[in-house]
Design goal:
Helix content is about 35%, strand content about 20%. The chain is of the alpha/beta class. It has a 7-stranded parallel beta sheet with strand order 7-6-5-10-8-11-9. It has a 4-stranded mixed beta sheet with strand order 1-4-2-3. Strand 2, helix 2 and strand 3 form a beta-alpha-beta unit. The longest helix has 16 residues. The radius of gyration is 21 Å and the shape is elongated.
């Protein structure tokens, strides 16, 4: 079976917590005796994983382009492929998704995964043809979130968004020119938030597929935010509102008035197709 390397304390600790059987060996700089190193060694000892103390130069040679922080783990097998249906079919609460359209920088992807993990997002979705892969750079930037948040690559993003809508998940696009202010807008419980690249935004078809567009109010001289910063603003506001929901909110779309109104708006906007309609 193939193996790969992950590096950095966050990423390795997350792997030890979520999938310890895949960790075959940990190499750590022999000069590290701080609290983070001791905590990692304790986790590894509890899981029965071999730890090798070595010279920092050896680690530099193993990961020459990475800030490994003095620790590298050898992992068995490739990264698991996440499938959207598997994620959605196992949810026990309303869906909370982040969709990235045109994010090609692996560091931005990693930062968005980290935001998604912090906000409790169920999965991050991106198109196969126009997105960053889950590279070692992305995984390092994610600080462990690449091991905990499913990253779903889809062939046709607009079609995937329509499939989410069929599951009564409200698709919210983000755009600087949107009329609705994030803090004044209403939306249902089950949501998928779509972010495009800074300066370019969402692609036309992606934008047209969204049920709603919202923006972050900007009060200074800058006109836009880095995508991961914007993701943090949107995801944390969405999480804050989810925390105010009744505990018996429906996993399929929410029980509040905004949810019912939004779904009725979609039914008017997208009437059922006549027999023989083509897609």
């Amino acid at each position: 079976m193939s193996s790969r390397l992950i590096y950095g304390f966050h990423a390795i600790t997350a792997k030890l917590r979520h999938d310890p059987s895949s960790v075959k060996e940990i190499l750590i700089d022999a000069s590290r005796h701080d609290g983070r190193a001791r905590d990692l060694l304790q986790h590894a000892e509890l899981q029965g994983i071999n730890v090798v103390a070595c010279d920092g130069k050896r680690l530099d040679a193993m990961a020459p382009d990475a800030r490994h922080q003095g620790v590298i783990a050898r992992i068995e097998g490739g990264r698991k492929v996440a499938h959207l249906d598997d994620v959605l079919d196992t949810l026990e609460e309303p869906a909370f998704l982040l969709v990235l359209d045109g994010i090609t920088d692996p560091r931005n992807l990693g930062a968005c995964l980290r935001v998604a993990d912090a906000a409790g997002v169920h999965a991050v979705i991106a198109p196969k043809d126009r997105s960053a892969g889950l590279t070692d750079v992305a995984a390092k930037t994610a600080s462990g979130a690449a091991e905990s948040v499913p990253y779903v690559l889809v062939t046709n993003l607009a079609r995937t968004l329509r499939e989410l809508q069929e599951r009564e998940i409200w698709v919210i696009g983000t755009a600087g020119e949107a009329e609705s202010d994030l803090y004044a807008a209403d939306w249902p419980v089950a949501t998928a938030w779509v972010l495009g690249a800074e300066g370019e935004g969402m692609r036309r078809l992606t934008r047209e597929t969204c049920d709603q567009l919202v923006r972050i109010p900007m009060h200074g001289s800058v006109e836009s935010l880095n995508v991961s910063v914007a993701a943090g603003v949107f995801m944390n506001e969405a999480r804050r509102r989810r925390g105010c929901l009744p505990h018996d909110a429906s996993p399929r779309g929410g029980a509040d008035g905004a949810g019912h109104a939004a779904m009725e708006h979609r039914r008017r906007r997208y009437p059922p197709p006549r027999c023989g309609a083509q897609f």
